[in-house]
Design goal:
Blueprint lengths: L33 E4 L5 H11 L4 E4 L2 E5 L2 E8 L2 H7 L7 E6 L17 H4 L8 H16 L3 E4 L10 E3 L9 E5 L5 H9 L6 E2 L17 H11 L1 H27 L10 E7 L9 E9 L16 E9 L13 H25 L2 E4 L4 E2 L8
Antiparallel strand pairs: 1-5, 1-6, 2-3, 3-4, 4-5, 6-7, 8-12, 8-13, 9-10, 10-11, 11-12, 13-14
């Protein structure tokens, strides 16, 4: 008896041959990853997001959207109720696009990483790597922005049982504002303090209370590091670091002996504020400011992007920073994350107007901010 999940034998066999612009190539759904979309998403929106990720993205044929060289999305095709049931897709699914990408796999998922990332969890025996991992990472970003989902086919040796992954838009809390205008710590604190009470410069570097540098590294991890990079390379790096530290200490001592002081020049700084002043355990919002030369594609078209560009990175810093990007969190943590997300959007809205900039999310997509904010 045939496997009921095998779509190639669930529907007439004459639909199993790929033909762009014609009937859905059902046979490919058993072996290819799929982007699932609702009826309010257009192919132009998918294209725009792909263009934000890669300068070589774009339509390269009938119903063939290149994400980057060697990787394309085929479609879209309409999905009816019968096909939606066979795919075990979400109820909102009305169309799909098929990922045409080389399959490149590495080893099994490390046990300690299980349950942290649904995309990684879908491939417990053989993790995607290289081109396939890059393609799936970009596809997840697109699905997250368009409120879509991925239907992943792990393949041998995992078996072909598909896995549905719906990326949570709530995970994307941080925003980055790129602009041609510099604001100093005091001015920025005053501006953003109108939205986030308690916003203040974080200019004092914390002094370590314990071991620092290599002395603070776990001996087992240090041994593995030496094995990986080689003893000679490690020893040279250590000696270089020690020489730099000794020179810095000697210069500080020389200046102190002459009665002078070393003026610290800052080209980066941060300002911080609590997510909620009445909830100490809800972490903080940190805005990191500095010059940048690594602009997302979505920003490079701005007229001012050819000159000096500043970045204002708005980050949520929970008490346990490992929870900042978890897909699955507790109900209490979801409330904190949503409050942080709302505050980041409000701060970014004020900042965009003040420095004549644009905002992008963690995936490098432009974000429209205003009276009716949208992500």
């Amino acid at each position: 008896m045939s496997d009921p999940t095998d779509l190639a034998v669930s529907l007439p066999t004459d639909t199993g041959t790929f033909s762009a612009g014609s009937m859905l190539p059902v046979g490919r759904l058993d072996t290819h990853h799929v982007l699932l979309l609702a009826d309010d998403v257009t192919s132009d929106e998918v294209e725009a997001l792909a263009l934000s990720q890669d300068v070589q993205a774009g339509w390269v044929g009938v119903s063939s959207l290149q994400l980057f060289p060697g990787v394309t999305l085929q479609g879209p095709w309409e999905v009816d109720a019968q096909m939606r049931g066979l795919l075990e897709a979400p109820e909102w699914t009305t169309q799909l696009m098929i990922l045409d990408c080389p399959r490149t796999r590495a080893g099994a998922q490390p046990r300690e990483l299980a349950g942290l990332d649904p995309l990684s969890d879908a491939f417990p025996v053989a993790q995607p790597t290289g081109v396939e991992l890059e393609a799936l990472s970009r596809l997840r970003s697109i699905a997250r922005r368009l409120a879509g989902a991925l239907r992943l086919v792990p393949g041998a040796p995992n078996g072909n049982q598909p896995v549905i992954v719906e990326p949570s838009p709530e995970v994307s809390v941080s925003l980055t504002v790129y602009a041609p205008v510099w604001m100093g710590p005091e001015d920025l604190s005053a501006l953003l303090g109108e939205v986030a009470p308690g916003m203040s410069p974080a200019l004092t570097a914390p002094h370590p209370t314990g071991a620092v540098g290599l002395d603070a590294v776990d001996p087992d991890k240090l041994e593995r590091l030496v094995e990986r990079i080689g003893a000679d390379v490690f020893e040279e790096a250590w000696r270089t670091s020690e020489r730099a530290r000794a020179q810095a200490e000697a210069e500080e001592a020389r200046v102190a002996a002459s009665g002078g002081y070393i003026e610290e020049v800052r080209d980066r700084y941060a300002v911080v504020a609590p997510v909620d002043p009445e909830r100490e355990g809800w972490g903080r919002i940190e805005v990191q400011v500095g010059a940048t030369d690594g602009l997302p594609l979505a920003v490079r078209g701005e007229r001012w992007a050819r000159g000096a560009v500043l970045s204002y990175d708005l980050r949520w810093k929970p008490v346990d920073e490992t929870e900042a990007y978890l897909e699955v969190v507790s109900r209490a943590r979801r409330r904190e994350r949503q409050a942080a997300r709302d505050l980041v959007e409000q701060l970014a809205t004020v900042l965009v107007g003040a420095v004549s900039g644009v905002a992008v999310d963690d995936d490098g997509f432009l974000v429209s901010l205003g009276p009716e904010e949208s992500r």
